[in-house]
Write a structure and sequence with these properties.
Chain lengths: 403, 515
């Protein structure tokens, strides 16, 4: 039956959800171009593109790592701390190899740079190995194992930074400045992180769709016991997934260090692990494992960064205050929209019973508070009332439909 | 109300504790129960017997509100009822003690007994002391020497079962369903349970009792109902029958019309298993398998019979290297001793295993048909180091056609296929690895009759091609149709080895229950 066979073929280039993301990105950009009082998308388009591209590339690099781990049915909460550890390891290594140049803000030489970067990636491999060991041999749940390294690695990075500066420089310090021209070049040329991100995306896409290992990753995430019984060495596949996750975070850490010209283990990459997971989830990954694509994650990352940029353009002051809020809202809305069809078909209610009744004022107050903080009190109150009315009508409609 | 005063008045509402009339329950692909009618008298112990898959547990789950019947009526104490959940059934006085116990292991015994119906003080706080004391009284009446404050997970299975019974007592249930309650108990625990049952009966409780064990059934039951293939066979007074007759009714159906086993030629020995023993820590029995020995030849089908929990799956998993526990004994493959630590090693030694629980242990719902079939032989679908979709399709087309999978195409979702076609996909997956030995663990479970016949023909053909096949089944006719030899397991021990000529359902059932 060739006709029905064709209908089962993967749709053209992207899946429906991914086309929806493309549309959403275009919509967000269009809205920002119109709503931004400074019209920076019109007057300084290059600057805006550069900004979004850099942020997308940096987040995207380890969002790809998160994607592989999530498809394999795991989770890696430690990426943000891995970023801090990676930049610290690179800076410390360069400090040890060329202390005089590092302290005198002079070039440290190609060898020190290469060894420093290699050391960071090696540490990424070691952290991934630690995760895989904790998960497969000690049998910790992935959430617990990587929660431990989320807290532990940042502390470890800070201790490393302080003890190495104490030993190698006159004063103990919680950060190491980077002034080598190589990292300045990386900072000033946006195309470098973008090219690295693009290349990594292609490699990851090939890995997931066209290699045996990629198929095994999907099988592992889809049904771990069946994968083992099909003769797949699931422990080794997990080892790869967690190493890939940690090493992409280490790579991103090098870019963050270059970008900020400093290795600062206390703050660098803090909370970024959740942005990476959010990008993957918005891009269609299922935290249950087995489902997810590279194009989805790339689009999810772009969408997140475009929305964050849009909010910072529209609300002038303190835009970074709202970053977490935006990521949270985008994730909830994206995942809710992905199951709208199920909601309609299954007769499941969004606002059932007493819980639904209490959710209406909760959401209305939240909506009102956000709007009043960003657009003024009166608008906020109106938005809150509007949300309450809308949700109230939705509940009425739902209870009618099920009754 | 008079309790069981009138034993002859069938249909008299006052004497009937439970009436289930014309119950039909369908699951995707199977009819679990077809027009079953069951009447249980007030205060009697009514045993329900049948093979695995006969519909016993499904019927009891309908009675206790776990499932809702597709057709049929239910009456409790003469009043028609309709349960939408277990809570409804509990309110009507029906409590069930499931085969797999449903206790929250991290809560105390008292908390479990009152779970969902916690006692409260006048202030609305938890009345821990009240629950503790009442639970203590219940446990005492059950000869259960544990404290109500004990963490439930730390109890032995036998004591956990008594906790479930205490829960039923606290509900003041007038009807108690027990689903194979002694399957995990030691003899002394079983004896204690029997004393409890007698006490419940003396207090006027009606008990429905599922069991495979004929000696138990004949010691306890007032009447016995036999189910087969989801149908009611008959209900008799214990005094009017004997164990032989009951096992006869349990298995007594027509064999498949054609015998597919004719003129198969037996090849050399492939696999020798000697004294295989698999431990079972934290279980009163202490072992899952004990001293099991047998041979498998090329071109033969070896059937493994046994009831639920007899160790069939464990036997295959041990051979395949999929078990976690360390076994003792010897497994020789082509004369060389082997000990596989991972299924991969077994695959490399050309052994394949089709697992029992297709959905949980076999299928990859996120991969399409081609992906599910090619999974174990992806190296043959490579071109230039990368997977080629075209090669993969080419690879799977042959086995999909040979095994007769009905699918819209290799890109179809595996979850859209019927159970039989999914099973053929999994068999195709393993055939691509060109195995010498094929382990089939209950391959036709949950598959409709037509697809079963196709699978039988397929298994027979593979065997003629020289494969050695080990087949387990919970359905005896299936083993009798397919197998050249049958070994019978009972509670982890090998209790009989029967050639095709000597094997009958009766003999197998006796070996499986008597062991």
């Amino acid at each position: 039956m060739p006709q029905s066979d064709a209908s089962h073929r993967p749709s053209f280039l992207l899946r429906p959800g991914e086309w929806a993301l493309v549309l959403a990105i275009a919509l967000a950009i269009g809205l920002t171009a119109l709503a931004d009082a400074n019209h920076s998308y019109w007057f300084r388009p290059l600057e805006s593109v550069r900004d979004i591209a850099r942020n997308t590339a940096l987040l995207g690099i380890f969002a790809l790592g998160a994607t592989v781990v999530i498809i394999a049915g795991g989770i890696d909460l430690s990426a943000g701390s891995m970023i801090a550890l990676s930049s610290t390891v690179c800076a410390t290594t360069m400090l040890a190899l060329a202390p005089a140049q590092m302290m005198g803000f002079k070039p440290v030489g190609a060898i020190a740079v290469i060894v420093g970067c290699a050391a960071s990636l090696l540490v990424g491999f070691l952290v991934g190995t630690l995760h895989a060991w904790l998960i497969t041999s000690v049998r910790l749940p992935p959430f617990i194992a990587t929660l431990a390294t989320l807290v532990g690695l940042r502390s470890f990075a800070r201790a490393l930074c302080e003890s190495s500066t104490a030993a190698l420089t006159p004063t103990k310090s919680a950060l190491i400045n980077i002034s080598d021209p190589f990292f300045k070049t990386v900072r000033d040329n946006v195309w470098i992180p973008v090219a690295v991100f693009g290349l990594l995306a292609i490699v990851t896409w090939l890995l997931l769709t066209r290699t045996v290992l990629g198929r095994h990753l999907h099988a592992l995430g889809g049904n771990e016991q069946a994968a083992r019984l099909a003769g797949i060495r699931t422990d080794n596949v997990k080892w790869f997934a967690y190493c890939f996750g940690a090493m992409t975070a280490a790579l991103a850490g090098l870019f963050y260090m270059a970008n900020e010209s400093v290795a600062a283990p206390v703050n660098q990459g803090r909370g970024h692990e959740l942005n990476a997971i959010a990008a993957a989830v918005v891009g269609g990954c299922s935290l249950a494992g087995g489902v997810g694509t590279v194009p989805g994650t790339v689009l999810g990352t772009i969408f997140l960064r475009v929305v964050i940029d849009a909010v910072s353009k529209i609300i002038k002051t303190g835009a970074d205050v709202y970053e977490g809020l935006i990521v949270g809202i985008v994730v909830v809305i994206a995942v809710t929209l992905a199951q709208v069809g199920q909601l309609a078909k299954g007769g499941r209610q969004l606002l059932p019973g007493a819980l639904g009744l209490c959710a209406i004022p909760t959401l209305a107050v939240l909506c009102g508070a956000i709007v009043s903080m960003t657009a003024g009190g009166r608008t906020g109150i109106a938005a809150g009332i509007g949300a309450a009315v809308f949700l109230g009508l939705l509940r009425l409609w739902e209870s009618r439909r099920t009754a | 109300m008079t309790a069981a005063a009138d034993t002859t008045g069938m249909g008299d509402a006052a004497t009937q504790a439970v009436v289930m009339r014309g119950i039909t329950k369908r699951f995707p692909g199977v009819v679990a129960l077809a027009d079953v009618t069951l009447e249980v008298r007030r205060g009697e112990l009514h045993a329900i017997c049948g093979e695995n898959g006969a519909g016993k547990s499904t019927l009891m789950k309908i009675l206790s509100g776990v499932y809702q019947p597709d057709e049929g009526d239910l009456e409790i104490g003469g009043r028609p009822v309709q349960f939408t959940g277990t809570r409804d059934a509990e309110q009507a006085g029906v409590a069930i003690i499931h085969q797999e116990l449903a206790l929250v292991e991290d809560l105390s015994v008292a908390a479990n007994v009152f779970l969902g119906r916690e006692k409260r003080t006048t202030l609305g706080l938890l009345d821990d002391r009240g629950m503790h004391d009442e639970c203590g009284r219940l446990l005492e009446s059950l000869e259960c020497p544990v404290s109500p404050a004990t963490r439930t997970g730390s109890l032995r299975v036998g004591d956990q079962q008594l906790v479930e019974i205490a829960k039923a007592l606290s509900l003041e249930a007038s009807i108690v369903v027990m689903d194979e309650p002694t399957s995990a108990l030691t003899e002394s625990e079983s004896a204690r349970l029997e004393r409890t049952i007698k006490r419940l009966l003396a207090a006027g409780t009606t008990i429905l009792y599922i069991s495979h064990k004929m000696d138990e059934v004949f010691r306890l039951a007032d009447r016995i109902t036999v189910l087969r293939d989801g149908r009611h066979v008959r209900t008799v007074d214990r005094a009017d029958t004997n164990p032989r007759q009951i096992t006869g009714w349990m298995v007594g159906r027509d064999l498949a019309d054609h015998d597919v086993r004719q003129d198969r030629t037996r090849g050399p020995t492939l696999l020798e298993v000697r004294g295989l023993t698999l431990p079972w820590p934290d279980h009163p029995r202490g072992y899952r398998l004990s001293d099991v020995s047998f041979d498998l030849h090329a071109g033969e089908i070896l059937g493994v019979a046994g009831l639920m929990g007899a160790g069939r799956t464990e036997l295959l998993e041990t051979i395949f290297g999929a078990g976690e526990l360390i076994w003792s004994g010897e497994i020789r493959l082509d004369g060389k001793p082997v000990r596989f630590r991972h299924p991969r090693e077994a695959c490399d030694a050309r052994i394949a295993m089709v697992t029992e629980d297709r959905k949980r242990l076999g299928l990859f719902p996120d991969l399409d048909v081609a992906g599910n079939v090619s999974l174990c032989s992806l190296s043959e679908a490579l071109r230039g180091g990368l997977l080629s979709r075209r090669r993969e399709e080419g690879l799977v087309t042959g086995p999909i056609r040979d095994t007769g999978v009905k699918t819209p195409g290799p890109h179809a979702a595996i979850t859209g296929l019927s159970g039989g076609n999914q099973q053929k996909c999994i068999i195709s997956r393993w055939l691509l690895t060109k195995p010498a030995i094929l382990l089939l663990d209950d391959p036709t479970r949950g598959i409709d009759v037509g697809a079963k016949a196709e699978l039988y023909a397929l298994i027979d053909r593979l065997c003629r091609d020289g494969l050695g096949v080990i087949l387990t089944s919970s359905e005896l006719p299936e083993l009798l149709t397919l197998a050249d030899r049958i070994i019978v397991l009972a509670e982890g021990r090998l209790t009989a080895e029967l050639s095709r000529a000597e094997a009958t359902e009766q003999k197998i059932m006796e070996a499986a229950t008597g062991g």
